[in-house]
Amino acid sequence: MTTLMSPDGNPITIRPIRPAEVARIPLRCWPEDPAALAQLFENQGTLGMAAWEGDKCVAQLHCYRITLPYGDNAAWPEWNHWWRPAWWAEVAREADLALNGPAWCHACCHVGRTLESFKREATESGIAKGADPRYFGRGIGTELCRASMHWAWDHDYVAVLALGAPQGLFEMAVAAGHLPWSTYTKLGFESLSLISPAGELPQWANGHGPRDLSAAPSPEKAVQHSVQDFYERLMILDLIGS
User: Fold this and answer.
1) 51 and 4 Cβ atoms separated by less than 8 Å
2) At residue 216, does pLDDT exceed 60?
3) Cα–Cα distance between 241 and 2 in angstroms, integer?
4) Does residue 235 contact residue 189 with C-beta atoms inside 8 Å?
5) Residue with the larger pLDDT of the pair 23 and 229
6) Average pLDDT in the 192-212 region?
7) Going edge to edge, which strands form the sheet with 11-16?
8) Which of 47, 12, 5 is nearest to 26 (CA)?
9) Given pLDDT bands bounded at 50, 70 and 90, which one contains residue 172?
10) Residues 42-80 pLDDT 10s
11) Residue 205: what pLDDT?
12) Which of 86, 155, 169, 232 is 20 to 30 A from 204, comparing alpha carbons?
């Protein structure tokens, strides 16, 4: 098991989020309504995974349950809701997948976001807004994902789904709250498809994305990649076939 350490040398532990811990977790990408949160706990058992430095939450992986092939989750906030049931018909046909049942979706992952840093988010700018960058690069995101995979396996999910950020575009990954697709690949996920590929840069790369997606590439960076390198990938861990 990987031993995670904080910037101050303190051990970091990761576990599924419990109802009694909600007040100590930044509710950035979960509904803030107490009744909606209670319903999520009832339906899912947990909201996702959290990393703790003592009693301080320092990272969160937001998760939502859907039912394949065409289910959805009404509690998933629309502004960060990347899952679209209509995708599955195209993706499953390409990958020859026939998964039916509950799937565990990684909505987003935020490393270094604490209650303190979250309160500063509205007044900060740059890729680390709302987060303490000292927690970056310590393997916390990877271990949140690994814990989530085990949770899904233990609770009879048929698959784990996630968006993988473009490889080598760290700013975009932090802004979007998505682990790189290469990280998911190392954990056993497969890449099913690019998300909405087109013949031009995606909207976020042109500065037109949602409120956090402002990490547009420089002209120098843009010429080093093909257009598809700027698109995210739909990643899957098939728990039935594994």
Assistant:
1) yes
2) no
3) 26
4) yes
5) 23
6) 64
7) 4-5, 11-16, 48-53, 56-68, 101-111, 159-164, 233-238, 190-194
8) 47
9) confident
10) 999 999 999 999 999 999 999 999 999 999 999 999 888
11) 65
12) 86
pLDDT for position 210:
37
Please count the residues of the chain: 242
Q: Taking the model in full, what pTM does it have?
A: 0.87
Token pair in block for residue 10: 């303190």
For each of the domains in the chain, give its residue range(s) and CATH number, in order of start: 4-238 (3.40.630.30)
61: its two tokens: 């992986």
Per-residue model confidence (pLDDT) at position 212:
38
Q: Please state the three-class secondary structure of the chain as a single string.
A: CCCEECCCCCEEEEEECCHHHHHHCCCCCCCCCHHHHHHHHHHHCCCEEEEEECCEEEEEEEEEEEEECCCCCCCCCHHHCCCCHHHHHHHHHHHCCCCCEEEEEEEEEEECCCHHHHHCHHHCCCCCCCCCHHHCCCCHHHHHHHHHHHHHHHCCCCEEEEEEECCCCHHHHHHHCCCEHHHHHHCCCEEEEECCCCCCCCHHHHCCCCCCCCCCCCHHHHCCCCHHHHCCEEEEEECCCC
Q: Contact at 8 Å (CB) between 68 and 158?
A: yes
Confidence at residue 60, expressed as pLDDT on a 0 to 100 scale: 96
Phi and psi torsions of 164, nearest 5°: -100, 125
Residues 144 and 14: beta-carbon distance below 8 Å: yes
As a whole-number percent, the residues of the chain with pLDDT over 90 amount to: 57
